[in-house]
Each structure stands twice: as C-alpha cells, then as structure tokens.
Amino acid sequence: MQHTVKGTVLPVLEVELGPGESVVAEAGEFSWMTDSVQMTTNTGAGMGGKGLLGAVKRMASGSTFFFTTYTAQGTPGMVAFAAKVPGSIFQIEVGPNQEYRAHRHGFLAGTPGIEISVGLQQQFRSGIFGGEGFLLQTIGGTGQAWIELSGEVIAYDLAPGQTMRAHPGHVGLFQASVNFSVVRVPGVANRYLGADGHHFAVMTGPGRIWLQSMPVPILAGALSPYVAGESHPVEAGAIGGTVAGALGNLFGNK
User: 156: burial class by Cβ within 10 Å (0-12, 13-18, 19+)?
Assistant: First the structure.
C-alpha cells in the first residue's frame, strides 16, 4: 500500500491499494476512486468495531456511527479523500506502544487494524465546556492512520516535565505518553474580557504534540463580522450549527 498527499492549501490523500488491500474511513469522507475499488459500509468496518456497542462508543468520541471499507478487488486501485477546509494531511504509525489522542475530527482514514475509541481525559467536565479540542479520540491498534488538521501544523517534542499551554481549538494530535489536562485561564478579567476562552489545554511531556493553526470554529469566528446575518461573535469552542451557518452563508449564497 502506497499513499500520496497532493496539493497544498486543500490537500488530497490518495491511497494506492494492491489487490485485496483495504483502507477504512469514516462515512462521508470519500471523494473519488477507481472502478476496481469496492466500498462496504457498516458499524464496524474493522476499526475495533465490536458491532453496535463499538459504534456507539466511537460516537461518544465525536466519530461517526458508520465506517466504510474500501477494498481493491482483483486489480490495483486507488481511493482519494479530500480535505474539507484548508489544512494539512499526514501519516502516523500506530502500534501497541504508539497510541495517539486526536481532536474529534482529526482522524481521516486508516488501515484495518486501527482502532478508534473514546479518549476523554480526566477533567471531563472542564473538557466539554472548554471546546472541541477536549472531546478526544484515541487512535490505537496496529497499522497506519492519516490525520487531517486545519491550517498549518506545528509539531513540538516535549521533554519529560516540559509543558505547553494552548488554546483548546489549536490542539490537534499528541502521543499518548503526553499528559493532558485542562485548567481555567487565571484571572476573571482574562477569562471574560480577554476573548481568548476560559480554559487552557495543558500538555506535559514526554512526547510529541501537533498543533493546528486554524481551527474551523476560530475561522468561523473571524469570518462572522463579514457574513450577512451573523452579527454576534462566535465563541472559539462553538461548533455545529453556528459554523455551518457561517460557512453556508459565505459560500452557499452565490
């Protein structure tokens, strides 16, 4: 199995499959494929599925209920997954001692043997109210996975005990060896007047972290003053209808 990431601002992941080889992605990620590739959608799809219960647990991590397996039948084939917003796509190797935590939209595709599960951390309540970066997926199992993050991706290698504090939306991916916690931004004025959110994501080494420069909620907030019908500010942690409405008004009404 070979892969290529094409493009720059809006990259496309192309996965070349040999006969009988498969790649798995969340339902809705498909962009295009050759005619030798067959797709099968179900609740497991090899992603540590365990049937209905496994699908429900994945949904709790922000993943989709269904996964789709793409398999080359008889002859080699290719399947492509295009980025949905300007950003970056890159590969990680996953194994018994190489698990990762990703924000809930970080996983793009993977080989059979990759397992997606809930990765909520110890400060669950603070995490939920701190923004989407704290509703985490665990990417485990064995194989290759491809990650999609928004904007430019900046990686840091943290030494043991070294700490990085980040705005919640900028947390993209980190190795499971990194200790993750959530703290309130100190000072009432900082929290309520600073417009930088109420929480810090605190990551302490050892391990590598990947931060994304342009989370979609922050992009939507930056665009909201220029979008008709969006007169209120968008909080950095907001997702869903607000983001869809802002981007829909911007690109859909032409």
Answer: middle
DSSP state of 160: T
Which residue is it, tokens 């699908």? 55
Domains contained in the chain, number: 2
| Amino acid code (one letter) for 248 | G
In sequence order, which residues have a C-beta less than 8 Å from that of residue 172 and are 6 or more positions away?
102, 103, 106, 147, 149, 150, 153, 210, 211, 212
* Of 11, 14, 19, 12, nearest in space to 3 by CA: 14
Give pLDDT tens digits for 75-129: 999 999 999 889 999 999 999 999 999 988 899 999 999 988 876 544 434 444 4
pTM, two decimal places = 0.76
Q: What is the CATH number of the domain that holds 147?
A: 3.60.160.10
How big is the CA angle at 184 (ends 175 and 239), to the nearest 5 degrees? 70
> What is the span of the domain harbouring residue 48?
2-214
CA quadruple 118, 119, 121, 126: dihedral sign: negative
Instruction: Let me know whether 47 and 172 are in one domain.
Output: yes
Query: What pLDDT sits at residue 40?
Result: 92
